[in-house]
Amino acid sequence: MQPIELISITKRFRTAEKGEGEITILSNIDLGVVQGQSTAIIGKSGSGKSTLLHIAGGLDSPSEGKVLCNGTDFATLDDRHRSALRNLHIGFIFQSNLLLEDFTALENVMAPALIAGKKEKECKDRAVELLNRLGLADRMNHIPGKLSGGEKQRVAICRALMNSPEVILADEPTGALDEENAGEVEQLLLDLVREEGRSLLLVTHNQDFAYRCDNVYLLKNHVLTKEK
Ligand SMILES: Nc1ncnc2c1ncn2[C@@H]1O[C@H](COP(=O)(O)OP(=O)(O)O)[C@@H](O)[C@H]1O
Ligand SMILES: [Mg+2]
Question: Is the pLDDT of residue 177 over 70?
Fold first, then answer.
């Protein structure tokens, strides 16, 4: 079974300023996220990449079509069950890391597992292991304000991995980083997919990063075209 499958997805937004008008952002898109593979989506700013990723993760709903997460249609679930399914199977990484500013790196990483109802000791052990692995052993008790951009993004990756999700959805995860930190984070994400058999669905502006993924799609004129 594919961890995420998009079937005939169309997305339209109302253009509020113009009253009744609607614009089509995505038109009849099919996309399967394959277990153990990385897939990049490239496309110009405003082409609908973030919209597609949000729909893939059940954060937004399509106007038409359906999204299956481990075989379950997001649309058949109420908000609570949809969040629970997402929390178990999907890890999100955004351009801005969205860490909780008042909590330490360790607490931020533990949060998804605590929400999933796991025991505190178990959460802490896993969070410490992840932070060690991503080179943050001596940064665990820092709040995000005391970390560099690259360190914050590595904390966000740890948080996304906390519940061992089958799929990682990443929206321009290196967009706010300098070249060196971006390179490190890119390599880390690709290694994780390769070593642990996870799937990565990645939106990026960076062509080099995109083409190091197993599959590359271009989003243009509302449709996806396979480039690799
Ligand atoms: N909630 C919304 N309501 C209306 N229009 C939106 C909304 N979200 C995104 N859009 C529009 O959809 C288009 C695609 O946006 P987005 O998915 O963010 O593109 P990308 O991530 O490729 O830059 C843009 O024109 C944007 O203005
Ligand atoms: Mg975007």
Answer: yes
